[in-house]
Fold this sequence. Notes:
Number of domains: 2
Radius of gyration: 24 Å
Strand content: 25-35%
Helix content: 10-25%
Number of helices: 5
Amino acid sequence: MALxxxxxxxxxPTIWSAxxxxxxxxxxxxxxxxxxxxxxxxxxxxxxxxxxQLGNITIKDYDGTDIDDPEEIDSKQQTLTIDQAKYxxxxxxxxxxxxxxxxxxxxxxxxxxxxxxDVIDQDVFDVAAxxxxxxxxxxxxxxxxxxxxxxxxxxxxxxxxxxxNVPKAGRKIVLPPWYLxxxxxxxxxxxxxxxxxxxxxxxxRVGRFQLLESNNLKxxxxxxxxxxxxxxxxxSFANQIVETEAYRPExxxxxxxxxxxxxxxxxxxxxxxxDFIVKQGTSQAGGTGTETGN
Length: 294
């Protein structure tokens, strides 16, 4: 449907939306810690997705006689609600001209995408810290990390996940920059570390974890940091850019573009996700073990 103002006759909403999503994906470190299995099932803010999880199936002995009646399998249902919504709204001198100018279009949408990514990153990491079923360290007694203990603490954390039967395949951990700096001082850690724009630390793996870096982890008083570790089956995430349109603001002579992003996120399998609560040590006192909180 054509827009009423002639300045918008060539405006193509799908082009702007596609560019926004591409920039968002490049910036979001937290998306690498989630699954997006239900993304296509949402359309708008307030939508819900029902997620079923089957219970265990009993294995029984067979002695050649009649077998028992079929077992009724328990199941539990969780709801992923699209309860988060953020919008962007910025002015351009001429929408037609902006759309034909690739540099201007990319620059403005990349800026909007980055700022949305920053908000979503912090939101997902906050949910991860709150919903994790495995707690290592506590807010009142976080694990102090030193250059001589940083490596061993990750190995110990990997063992803790082994003990909880967390799948070994696809394990990831997101570290603050200072933690990676301490790891780099340990001779056991690779000297070929390369941190990509996506936050992935290339050529480095400790305690079966793929390493990622972020400045958006949940923090607390005294330098406390909540480090998420586990598989992407723990958190389900769904996001849509549901509206993108051009319009003419009444109170100025510019054209403008606005868009709405909605998302939902939830810890679905809390026992595959650890909240590793740490702070950077200020002296070399302290052990190398992990402390398990409640």
